[in-house]
Amino acid sequence: MHKVRVNLGKRSYQIVIGGGIFYQLGAYLKKLDIGTDAFIITNAFLKNKYGAKLLQVLSGNGFNCHFKLVADSEKTKSIETASLVIKELAKFDQKKKVFIIAFGGGVVGDLAGFVASVYKRGINYVQIPTTLLAQVDSAIGGKTAVDLDLGKNLVGAFYQPRLVFSEINFLKSLDIMQVRCGMAEVIKYAVIKDQKLFSFLENKYQKVVQRNPATLETIIHACSRIKAGIVYRDEKETLGLRSILNFGHTIGHAIEAAGGYKSYNHGQAVSLGMIVAVDLSKRLGLIDTQSALRIRNLIKLYGLPIKIKGVSAAKIIRAHYHDKKFSGKENKFVLIGGIGKPRIVRNIKLDLIKEAICGAFFALPVSG
Ligand SMILES: NC(=O)c1ccc[n+]([C@@H]2O[C@H](COP(=O)([O-])OP(=O)(O)OC[C@H]3O[C@@H](n4cnc5c(N)ncnc54)[C@H](O)[C@@H]3O)[C@@H](O)[C@H]2O)c1
Ligand SMILES: [Zn+2]
Fold it and tell me: Which residues of the chain have pLDDT under 70?
């Protein structure tokens, strides 16, 4: 078992990571003095698979529980669903000391965190992430959100959980696509911050796909430490430090949007975004060919795409441009000067960005 502290003064909390730690959840919650009545937000699949166990652990420790099921889809991250959840929460919350448990992947986590942040101006909540992506990324750091038709994550708040409880055994039931999707974020962390993790990933592909608990624990621990460290230094992304977590995401988001959120899932789009970012880094003379190749090979090793297919370059460029215009932000990219060396570069010429995007159609990024 590993523990990582997210150090934020009075709002500090622990991330607990391990295989077979689930039975200890009740004791952790009791110690936090978090409330007595758990409003558990999850989906039907997860309730069927793990609900009885969760209920047993919680009621065995004297907690009163209520499950609120939401649909298993990104569409669940909406104001409409949040409103329904809040109404049910208010009904449940009669003469109780209620707290929320987010039991699921990033969709459930973002929605539950958002509800916790606005209900009665903020109540306690706990993240129990069940996907690799949620364990290494979305459950940590207090970014909560729902989507609007106009764009993803447009309504939300920074609102920290009281505990993140990452039970690795939950990952056994994830399908391989979800594991790969999470691995894209893991590769992102290794590239921006951790040479040791990068080498570890180069050697452990088989163990990862076999969901080897010790291997996954090492990975989730490393990523949790990186994210906790960044959140500690720049909780609300005001200093620009937290933005290094967007490595691969600027163009990744444009690829996701250009494909109508159907051609590529988030992890695949981020992988392609990383390929473009590495190419830009190379064109600007920031990174050497060998490091660039290692990054490309690692992305490929984990079954993630390194070549864009089926989405037009023009659409990606338009989506990128629209995103910048929409957010009113200057053109700012997270590039790299080598493995573990992030570099923020501003005002890159549009032509260069276009060339790098077009290069990714031929997997050129690191070949020349
Ligand atoms: N808040 C943040 O900082 C942050 C960071 C990154 C991503 N996100 C958000 O996270 C969301 C994506 O999260 P995700 O990738 O976890 O997707 P998800 O929550 O949709 O989960 C993916 C799928 O896996 C299933 N699932 C979950 N746990 C499972 C398990 N143990 N076994 C089998 N199946 C399981 C889910 O039911 C779902 O079908 C996006 O909405 C994204 O915007 C937020
Ligand atoms: Zn991401």
Answer: 324-329, 363-368
